[in-house]
Design a protein that fits this description.
single chain; 277 residues; mainly beta; OB fold (Dihydrolipoamide Acetyltransferase, E2P); 5-stranded antiparallel β-sheet; 3 helices; 38% strand; elongated
Length: 277
């Protein structure tokens, strides 16, 4: 039986002007068309060819020799090509985009943004993708406490924190108290492994070790001061919510960064704000 969403080796069972039909063996009724423009030169009846099978714009099985960006039962990052009435259509490298149904989204998706998705067949056996990938990630990662990893944010939970796919493969989480900067589903960020649970899932932090984090925050604050033409219009006595909104830092982290910049002689604090020296 020909399987949708997979690579398979099929036999040429008949030829037409517009292409060739492929099946597992001569006489099969479920032969699939490979368009003429994709037929390798010299391929004859009885010959074999490895192809990928999906559905065309009329929902008929069709073969291709082109490489899709995702296959059945796999995870991959795909870009949103358009958003329609039934969901988003994602570019997976083939002529017809693949559907991400609204019910399979995690929040609202944006055109041209890339999201990590898993490919499955829906109840009508049509290839689709989902952003609900928790059950498809592994929990036995090779990482240990103190390692730095790349994490993809695939779900946000107001009570728990952010669910993360580490290296697009392993389960991880940023606890709510560690969400020190604004993030969105679809963001890919560098994270530190702050712990490993008994079940193998990773506990992650957006912050580096204290001295490294202070250095990074100080650079960011100084760059922000420069972006305000050298005069940040508030000081470390400002309201914590305003500091968080403008800089993405807690008030304590901001005060530590300002203290470091003062010690380095890069800034001076005035009544109306902080000035770059």
């Amino acid at each position: 039986m020909i399987e949708l969403g997979k690579w398979q080796t099929l036999k040429v069972v008949r030829s037409k002007d517009f292409g060739i039909y492929l099946a597992q063996k001569q006489g099969d009724k479920d032969a699939v068309l490979l368009p003429r423009k994709q037929v390798p030169e010299g391929l004859k009846a009885g010959g074999e060819l490895e192809v990928f099978v999906y559905l065309d714009s009329s929902d008929r099985p069709i073969a291709t020799v082109h490489q899709p960006l995702i296959t059945l039962g796999k995870l991959a990052r795909l870009k949103v090509a358009s958003v329609g009435n039934i969901g988003a259509f994602m570019d997976w490298g083939l002529e017809k985009d693949i559907l991400l149904p609204f019910k399979e989204m995690e929040g609202k998706v944006k055109k041209d943004k890339t999201y990590l998705v898993y490919m499955y067949l829906d109840k009508s056996s049509r290839p689709c993708v989902t952003m609900k990938i928790y059950d498809y990630l592994e929990s036995s990662s090779p990482y240990e406490k103190g390692d730095y990893v790349e994490g993809y944010i695939y779900q946000l939970n107001e009570k728990l924190g952010a669910f993360v796919a580490v290296e697009d493969r392993y389960q991880g989480m940023i606890p709510k108290q560690e969400l020190t900067r604004r993030i969105q589903v679809g963001d890919a960020i560098k994270l530190r492994v702050s712990g490993v649970r008994e079940d193998g899932k990773l506990i992650l932090s957006m912050n580096q070790l204290a001295y490294q984090q202070m250095e990074e925050d100080s650079r960011m604050v100084y760059d922000m001061i420069l972006s305000y033409d050298g005069m940040l219009p508030f000081t470390d006595k400002a309201d914590p919510e305003m500091i968080k909104r403008e800089l993405g830092l807690s008030k304590n982290a901001f005060k530590r960064a300002v203290g470091r910049l003062l010690k380095e002689g890069k800034i001076e604090i005035q009544e109306t704000g902080i000035k770059a020296v």
